[in-house]
Amino acid sequence: MPARLPRLLRTFRSPIPSSRSYSQQLPRPLISTRIIEQPNFAPVLNPVFRHSLRHSHTSRPVVMDPSIQPNGVSAPKPVLFFDIDNCLYPRSSRVQDHMAQLIDEYFAKHLSLSWEDAVKLHKEYYTNYGLAIEGLVRHHQIDPLEYNSKVDDALPLEHILQYNHELRELLEDVDKSKCTMWLLTNAYVNHAKRVVKLLRIDDLFDGLTFCDYGAQPLVCKPAKEMYLRAMKEAGVEKMEDCYFVDDSYLNCQKATEYGWNVAHLVEEGLPVPRTQASKHQIRHLRELREAFPQFFKSKNV
């Protein structure tokens, strides 16, 4: 087992000058700060699926298969990390649009803002921190788990997402003897599990690393600490043994800088970035067979 990795501070710098930050013009609401205890989550997925995150209130890793090691895997091997939202399902599903609407409504209601100001502040926090919720927690002492219940958990995913035979066929083509398949998302555990269950691919992954809304401070991609935590939980020691696909330019760019092997998913119909975020740039997940052929049973289908 590798030595415990040090906790790192994020250095993601906002493109918005601090002197002109819109959030600084807002009064700090008189909301008391309290310690948030993360609830226990019963394994709701296929027993094969296991998630080894250490919850904020306990140092004991939670696993869904007692026969595996605490790091979530039985032996060290390369890990193929998958982002979830707008990656395992197409952007055309409009999950992001539904979520943005709920976030803007939350900002407007809980911060007593006009709709225009709510949208503006939402965008600023997303740009600055990678997650709107982090700005809310930092500047307004919002309960992140209560926020999650009003936003992510309120999404009507059952009416939006559906089984994708091509996706499952692709994931089943991954040779599990050659790599570990792991989910890496900035969403909370509830949302992550709902999505993969609705897509009917929850049984194909070995584990999950997510943004723990019950922990302070919040840590998410593209912070290096998030990638290091994913490595520890997935049981991989070397940066070069990490393979990753994500639709976020910044997440892919940073993962590449950290030494991961990355494929940036730029969905068909979206503009291609002038400068690639990573070595590999793909239009569809099936192109992973070309980007990382060593992990697939069939090279081209």
Automatic annotation (TrEMBL):
InterPro entries registered for this protein in UniProt: HAD-like_sf, HAD-SF_hydro_IA, HAD_sf, Pyr-5-nucltdase, SSM1_domain
UniProt GO MF annotations: nucleotidase activity
GO BP of this protein: nucleotide catabolic process; pyrimidine nucleobase metabolic process
Pfam families named in the record: Hydrolase
PANTHER family for this protein: PHOSPHATE METABOLISM PROTEIN 8-RELATED
Listed name of the protein: Pyrimidine 5'-nucleotidase
High-level lineage: Eukaryota, Fungi, Dikarya, Ascomycota, Pezizomycotina
